[in-house]
Amino acid sequence: MTETKRLLASIHDVGPGFEREVEQLAALLERRLGGPRFAMLVVPDHWGRHPLDSAPAFKARLRAWSDAGVEMFVHGWFHRDYAEHRGLARIKARHMTASEGEFLGLEEAEALRRMYKGRALVEDATGRAAAGFIAPAWLYGPGARAALRRSGLALAEDHWRVWDAASDKVLARGPVITWASRSAARTVSSIAFAGLARQVLPVLPTVRIAVHPGDVTKPELIASIDTTLARFARSHEPSRYAQIHV
Questions:
Q1: Could you tell me if residue 151 is left (phi over 0), alpha (psi between -120 and 50 degrees) or otherwise beta?
Q2: Per residue in 127-143, pLDDT tens?
Q3: 194 near 201, Cβ under 8 Å?
Q4: Residues in CB range of 30: below 8 A, 6 or more apart
Q5: Rounded to an integer, what distance in angstroms lies between the CA atom of residue 161 and that of residue 164?
Q6: What is the β-pairing status of strands 39-42 and 71-74?
Q7: Which of 160, 130, 163, 162 is nearest to 149 (CA)?
Q8: For 139-186, what is each residue's pLDDT tens digit?
Q9: Structural domain of residue 62, as residue ranges?
Q10: How many structural domains is the chain composed of?
Q11: Per-residue confidence band for 86, with pLDDT thresholds at 50, 70 and 90
Q12: CATH number of the domain within which 98 lies
């Protein structure tokens, strides 16, 4: 029997501060994937400015999306990285993200505290168990990885893989296709990578696509996202993360 190829799509940085952008991205994904077959990564208090707990209308919107079938992941707490880094971690923090790798430098106890708090908030908003935890900017330090194993959350992912959070068992491998709006150079390079991915990644059993609120600020990014979703929706079944967690 031929194994089903799966497409996992997600919207990052979901919260009341990006309500309009998230609505726009959700509509695009629903249209291309044939329904709400994607995940949302919820930030409990983005940069300390947009607390989900103080936004009852947005919490109700999250519940409606969850009721429709959208998976909800905990996506850090602040999303902002306040830690001082050295060595390789400093390079990652400086060059891979704009001070948003919140869980890169946290000690295990603090990482676990934020995971528990975030899980409680997301589950209170949706009335369902969180699908898992994905660190901001896909960056995990040793403390975050240790905390994940104790968190009780089901799934995690980074740039290159999806894994079982408790056992570290790898469930899918391959680069996530994502876009960048922070600078013109990053925008051009992310569009180029998406074009290459459409040519070479269809051979993978699991393909991941991730979009961000900032993507809606540039029409060329939305066009690339739309084309990429359409391409992989033809060869891969739009799926829930839970479907690879067997």
A1: alpha
A2: 999 999 999 999 999 99
A3: no
A4: 36, 38
A5: 10
A6: parallel
A7: 163
A8: 999 999 999 999 999 999 999 999 999 999 999 999 999 999 989 999
A9: 6-244
A10: 1
A11: low
A12: 3.20.20.370
